[in-house]
Design brief:
about 350 residues, alpha/beta, nine-stranded mixed beta sheet, six-stranded parallel beta sheet, disordered C terminus
Length: about 350
C-alpha cells in the first residue's frame, strides 16, 4: 500500500484527497495546509488522516512514499523540488512550474533520483479524450485538419497566472496527447480589461508543419460556461462537449473532396459527403481515479506516466511562447521544444 500526502487543500486538494482515498493500492497519509479551518474539514471527513500546517512534516515522514502538490503555481518549483529531494515520488498540479527553466530542473531532479513525476493534466485521463485518441490512432479521421476549442466562463479570475495558463493549458496538453507532431509557431491576441490583473481573454492559434492548425478561445469574461472542441479530419469529424451529461463525443461521417479530373471539368470540383453520426460509448470512471491508479502502476512497475515531466515541460514552453506572442500583440513566435511522442491511450 503506497502512502501519499497532499500539500494544499484549497480548490483542487479536496478532489485529490477524495480520489486518492478511493484508489486501490493508495492510502492518504496526511494533508498540509496553512488554513486551520480547512484542516478541520479534513479531520471530520477523514478521521484517520494526519493534518498539519507544516508541509515539512510530510517531507520528514519516512512512511510517506509520494506527495501531491496542489498549491498556487508560484510555489510549485520550491515545493516540488523539496519533495523530490526528500526522496518521494511527486504528483504536481498543472502547469508544473512558472517557467520552462524551473520545469526542466524538476524533470532532471526526478530522473536523477529515479522518482516518478506526474503532472496532473487531468483531461488526458477522461474517457472522452482517450476515445478521441483511439479514433485518431485507428485513422478513422484520416488526416487531421484542425482543432477548434472554446473554453470560456465568468471567472474564476486568477491572481498569479493569466487565462492561458489557467484554461488554454488544457488544450495544450490535449493536443500534445492526441497528435504526433509539435506546433512550430503560435500567435495570440489577448487583453487585460482590469489593470493590475493577469490577461483574462485570449485567442490562440497554433501552426503545424503538416498544415494542421489549432485554435483556442479562452476567457474568464463570458456570461456562460462553454467547454467544446471541434476536431476535423479528411474522413470524419468529431465534436466534444464536456458539459454534455451524455454523448459527450459525436463522430460525424462528413467531409469534402476535390477533383481535377478533366472529364469533370464542367462539373463542381468540390464534393460534399454527409453520412451518419454516432456517439461512442465512453468510460465514465472519474479522470482523477484513472490517473491515481496510473500513478500507482508507474511507481510499482517503473513505468513512465502518460503526463510525465517531459509533457509538463512542453506545455510550459508553449505557455511561455503564447504569452510572449500576446505581449507583442499577436506576433508569431517560433516554438523550440523536444519532439512530441505519438499519442498514447490509457489501457
Amino acid at each position: 500500500m503506497l502512502r501519499i500526502g497532499i500539500i494544499g487543500y484549497g480548490y483542487w486538494g479536496p478532489n485529490l484527497v477524495r480520489n486518492f482515498a478511493e484508489t486501490p493500492g493508495l492510502a492518504v497519509a496526511g494533508v498540509a495546509d496553512l488554513d486551520q479551518k480547512r484542516l478541520e474539514t479534513v479531520q471530520k471527513r477523514y478521521p484517520g488522516v494526519k493534518t498539519t500546517t507544516r508541509f515539512q512534516d510530510l517531507l520528514e515522514d519516512l512512511s510517506i512514499d509520494a506527495i501531491a502538490v496542489a498549491t498556487p503555481v508560484s510555489t510549485h518549483f520550491d515545493l516540488g523540488m523539496a519533495v523530490l529531494k526528500a526522496g518521494k515520488h511527486l504528483w504536481l498540479e498543472k502547469p508544473m512550474a512558472e517557467s520552462s527553466l524551473q520545469a526542466r530542473k524538476l524533470v532532471d531532479e526526478a530522473e536523477m533520483r529515479k522518482r516518478v513525476l506526474i503532472v496532473d493534466h487531468t483531461f488526458i485521463y477522461t474517457g472522452a479524450i482517450r476515445k478521441m485518441a483511439e479514433i485518431i490512432q485507428r485513422q478513422d479521421l484520416g488526416d487531421v485538419y484542425y482543432y477548434d476549442s472554446t473554453r470560456i466562463n465568468l471567472g474564476l479570475f486568477q491572481r498569479d497566472v493569466n487565462v492561458i495558463s489557467d484554461l488554454a493549458v488544457h488544450d495544450f496538453s490535449i493536443l500534445d496527447y492526441l497528435l504526433g507532431e509539435q506546433p512550430v509557431e503560435v500567435s495570440v491576441a489577448g487583453t487585460n480589461h482590469f489593470p493590475g490583473t493577469p490577461e483574462n481573454l485570449a485567442y490562440i492559434s497554433l501552426f503545424y508543419n503538416s498544415g494542421m492548425i489549432a485554435h483556442s478561445n479562452v476567457s474568464w469574461l463570458a456570461p456562460v460556461k462553454v467547454r467544446q472542441i471541434l476536431l476535423g479530419g479528411s474522413k470524419k469529424m468529431i465534436t466534444y462537449d464536456d458539459l454534455e451529461p451524455s454523448e459527450k463525443i459525436k463522430v460525424y461521417d462528413k467531409g469534402v473532396s476535390f477533383t481535377d479530373d478533366p472529364q469533370k471539368i464542367y462539373q463542381m470540383r468540390v464534393g460534399y459527403r454527409t453520412g451518419d453520426m454516432w456517439a461512442p460509448q465512453l468510460d465514465t470512471t472519474e479522470a482523477l481515479r484513472v490517473e491515481g491508479e496510473h500513478f500507482v502502476d508507474c511507481i510499482e512497475n517503473g513505468k513512465v506516466p502518460l503526463t510525465d515531466g517531459s509533457l509538463g515541460l512542453r506545455v510550459v514552453e508553449l505557455i511561455e511562447a503564447a504569452t510572449r506572442s500576446m505581449n507583442e500583440r499577436g506576433r508569431a513566435v517560433k516554438i523550440n521544444g523536444t519532439p512530441m511522442w505519438q499519442g498514447r491511450v490509457v489501457a
